Amino acid sequence: MQIRLLTDRAQPVIYQDGKRYLQFAGTSYLGMGNLPEFERLIHEGLNRHGANHGSSRNSNVQLGVFDVFEAFFAAGAGAEDACLLSSGFLAGHLAIQSLKPKVDLLWIAPDAHPAILPEGKAGDPAQSYETWVEACKQKASSLMGHRIGILANAVNPLIPKIHDFEWVRDLPPVNQYYLLIDDSHAFGVVGESLFGTYRQWSQLPVNLCICGSLGKALCLPAGIVVGNADWIDMIRQHAIYRSSSPPAPAFLQAFMQGQALYLRQKELLAKKVSALAAGIAELPAFYTADGYPVISFASPAWVEALASRALVVSSFPYPGPQDAPVNRIVLSAGHTDEDLNYLMACMVELQAGR
C-alpha cells in the first residue's frame, strides 16, 4: 500500500513511525516555506501589519501593503495593473467572470484548470494541447467579426509540459481574441523572473490576462489577476471582490523584501533540475521537459516501489475522486544533492526491473 505521510511541516525529509522518508510531492518548487531567512521576513511582516486584515478592500480602513504589492507585482510582470485575492481559485473565478461578458465564444484547452472554467464547461480531456491548437486555428479561419476567449494553463504540471502560445499569432485578425492563462504552476518557475508569463506573451495580438495561485512556488497564501487596467478595474467592481477579504499581509511584505532569496532559490532549482534531467536522459520510462521540476512515469506500481525505498512521490486521483491517480516526482530547491543522487539511483533500479 502507498505510504501516506501525516506531518506538521512538509519538508523534503519527513519522519513517520521512526522511519525517514524523502518527500517528492507537493508544489513547493522553490522550497521557500522551509527557509529560515524567509520565515524571518514573515515575522517582520507580522510585527508591522499584524496577522490578518479581514476587512473588504473597499473599507474605509485600509492597509497600504496591498496596493504596494499589486503595483510591485504588475511592474515585475510587465502589466498595467494587478489585483490580489485570497486564493488562486478565487482569482481564476473572477477572471473568467469578467471575461464572459466580453466574448461570443470560449475555446477551452484540454488541461485548463477548473478555476478558470465557466460553470458547466470544460475542455476535452481526450485531446492533446497540440490537437486543440490545430482545432482552434481551423475554427478561427471560418469565423469573422467574433469575440473569442481562449482559456488555458501556462503549464501542464501533470505531464509535464510548458505551453507555447505563439500559435495565436496565426489566428486571422478579422476576429478579436482574449487570452486567459492560469499561471499557478508558472509563477516563480517559468521564465526569467518570478512573475509568471505575462511579459512573455504581452506582445501577442490578444487582450491578455494572467491569473493564478501564488501559493505554490512563491509560498504566498494569495491569488492574483494580472492584466490591462480596464480588465483589472472590472474585477475590482465585482461584488465578490468587494465583499471578500484580502490575503494575509505579512507574506506579501516578505515577498517584496525577499526578492534576492527567491532568485537564489530559482537558480538553485534550475541547476538541480538540469542535473537530474541529464542523469535520467537514458531512462525512457521517466519523463521531464522544458526544465520543469516534475518527472512523470508510466507504471503505477512504481509509486509503491519508490515508497519501499523511503521515497514518497505525488500520487492521488485528479481532478475528481473517481479519476485515476496522477503519479509524479516533484523536485524542490530544498532537496540536497544527496537526495537527488539517491532518487536517481532508485530510478535506475526501477528502469532495470530490479
Task: Describe this structure as you would to a colleague.
The chain is built from 11 helices and 14 strands. It is an alpha/beta fold and 354 residues long. The protein has 2 domains: 13-35 and 260-351, Aspartate Aminotransferase, domain 1 (Alpha-Beta Complex); 53-247, Aspartate Aminotransferase, domain 2 (3-Layer(aba) Sandwich). The strands form 3 sheets. A 6-stranded mixed sheet has the order 1-2-13-14-12-11. It has a 6-stranded mixed sheet with strand order 3-10-9-8-5-4, sandwiched between helices. It has a two-stranded antiparallel sheet with strand order 6-7. A hairpin with a 2-residue loop joins strand 1 (13-16) and strand 2 (19-24). Helix 1 (36-49) packs across helix 8 (249-257) and helix 2 (64-77) crosses helix 8 (249-257). The radius of gyration is 21 Å and the shape is globular. It starts with 12 loop residues before the first strand and ends with a helix.
How do the helices and strands line up, and which of them pair or pack?
Layout: E1 13-16, E2 19-24, H1 36-49, H2 64-77, E3 81-85, H3 88-99, E4 105-108, H4 129-141, E5 147-153, E6 155-156, E7 161-162, E8 176-182, H5 198-201, E9 207-213, E10 223-227, H6 229-236, H7 239-243, H8 249-257, H9 259-279, E11 286-287, E12 294-297, H10 301-308, E13 311-317, E14 325-330, H11 337-351
Parallel strand pairs: 2-13, 4-5, 5-8, 8-9
Antiparallel strand pairs: 1-2, 3-10, 6-7, 9-10, 11-12, 12-14, 13-14
Helix pairs in contact: 1-8, 2-8
